[in-house]
Design goal:
The protein is mainly α. It has helices at 37-73, 94-126, 130-166, 168-171, 176-184, 194-204, 212-228, 235-261, 265-300, 307-323, 326-337, 341-344. The longest helix has 37 residues, at 37-73. The chain binds flavin-adenine dinucleotide. Residues 3, 8, 186, 189-190, 193, 195-196 line the site of flavin-adenine dinucleotide.
Amino acid sequence: MGQHGSVTASLAAGQNGHCRGWLLGKDPLKNEGKGEGMTQMFQMMNMARMQTGHMSLSCIVNAFANARDNAKERIQGRLMTNPKAGRVAIINHENTKRTLMMGKAHIEAIRAMMYRVYLAFDQRHRDPEPAVRKAANDLIEITTPLCKAYPSDEGWWLIGEAIQSYGGYGYCSEYPCAQIATDMKIYSIWEGTNFIQSMDLVGRKMNMKGGSIFSDWVQEMVDFYEANKDHEALSKEFANLGKALAAYKNMLKALAGYSKTNVSMIPLYSHRVLTATSQLFCGRQILDQAVLAEKRAKEVGPDHFDYTFYTGKVATARYYVRNVVPNVWAVAEIVIDGDTSAIDVEIDVFED
Ligand SMILES: Cc1cc2nc3c(=O)[nH]c(=O)nc-3n(C[C@H](O)[C@H](O)[C@H](O)COP(=O)(O)OP(=O)(O)OC[C@H]3O[C@@H](n4cnc5c(N)ncnc54)[C@H](O)[C@@H]3O)c2cc1C
């Protein structure tokens, strides 16, 4: 497909012989090659995973902004609510607004997740309190596969939606969304495919220190829900977060059971579990922003130039938590149900 917006090269080392490599880590030569090369390589990999998620987010934002601008200009069709009036820009149609809101909600939810994790990078590096540095490190460990995989998975279909909102122009390579799609697809593949990320989540991250680090992470979301569940303006949204958390905890119990009774269930469901985990965390983070934005909107009032920004933040969080987060309890139900038809069948079944 090709990354046309990127300076990517293929390097072939050693084709003419005389190729030299260096063992990395603490005195690997004195230590029969047993340094800390792998650990150091993973530091680099983990940062590259964050950057991959970040680049995916940038692609989604770019496609969204182009689709929005096109929707403001493209005149097509009349309003269902006022068919006798003239044709309007497509941004006024319900389905185009839905498409744009889906893009905006994902962008803001993914940003909320990634900015929280980037804050943890600063805390890990700079905070004077060892407990804060440790908590930041735990958060980074758990969320690195989410930050890599969730934006790069969702980006593919979100850019598809941006293409769709253009109509025929969207499909043509002269237009930006088609170009962004080809640049985008690699992000779910490199730096460890998203399946590999999902196995890192369910295999390693969920079980660090006997599972206690992951339990604390889930508990923090429960505490956030408990502290806000009576919020007047966002009661339905917090009810959704509470429902998603309860379902998610039941799903974790089912996964723990499968790891003892039928280990194939873990890779069978891990990718869906990663998506649901990301949606839960994104829902928690975007609601945090919504609480603040709702308060600020009331404080500044409708005449203030920031009023639309704050009310837009609340509406976007509402959309994400009411239209995306319900997937968490759908996935939980699917995992608990534990259908095995995909792995039970003979491979020949996949023939036509
Ligand atoms: C444009 C581009 C640039 C790249 N740049 C670099 C680079 O700079 N440096 C570098 O080192 N690499 C680079 N790569 C390689 C990239 O990291 C790999 O393509 C990627 O890790 C996937 O490995 P693979 O292609 O061997 O796929 P495979 O490992 O063959 O995987 C194929 C499919 O099988 C799945 N799969 C694999 N193993 C399992 C398993 N055990 N269980 C279930 N499913 C499994 C995978 O998830 C995937 O969907 C680049 C690739 C591309 C396309």
